[in-house]
Amino acid sequence: MGYAYVDKAPSKTDEFDYLILLNKELIVAKTKILIYREDYGGEIGSKRWLKQFIGKTFKDTLTYEQDIIAISGATISASSMTIAVNKFLQNLAILHQNKVF
């Protein structure tokens, strides 16, 4: 079916839990914010914003405010999610290069 990855990323004063689902070809099929612990910035959990990550692979490098649109009031969390997905994709590239997948 595919693969799932769950981790935490920092927000302004806390952190949030997120999920990345990959298909068999290691392409991002879905991202989701599982738990958001801040009073502000929860907009990063919107399906509309998160669908920007769908279709990304270990060959992609994402830049906040260029590849991924900014969210007013959620700058830290949105940037953090972009960084987290980037790190995940970079690690996936290393695993792929070493023929783990």
User: How does the helix and strand content classify structurally?
Assistant: alpha+beta
Please count the beta strands (DSSP E, at least 2 residues each).
3
Q: What is the first-to-last residue Cα distance?
A: 14 Å
Strand line-up in the sheet with most strands: 1-2-3
- The chain-level mean pLDDT equals 95
pLDDT below 50 for ≥5 consecutive residues: which ranges?
none
Strand share of the residues?
A: 25-35%
Shape summary: globular
> Secondary-structure element order, as H and E?
EEEHH
Number of helices: 2
Helix content: 25-40%
The largest sheet, given as strand count, sense and whether it forms a barrel, is: 3 strands, antiparallel
CA radius of gyration: 13 Å
Structure in words:
This protein has a 3-stranded antiparallel β-sheet. By secondary structure, the protein is of the alpha+beta class. It has helices at 47-50, 75-97, and strands at 2-10, 15-23, 28-35.
Q: How would you summarize the topology of this molecule?
A:
Layout: E1 2-10, E2 15-23, E3 28-35, H1 47-50, H2 75-97
Antiparallel strand pairs: 1-2, 2-3
Q: Concise description?
A:
This protein is an alpha+beta fold.
Notable traits:
101 residues, alpha+beta, three-stranded antiparallel β-sheet, 2 helices, 3 strands, globular
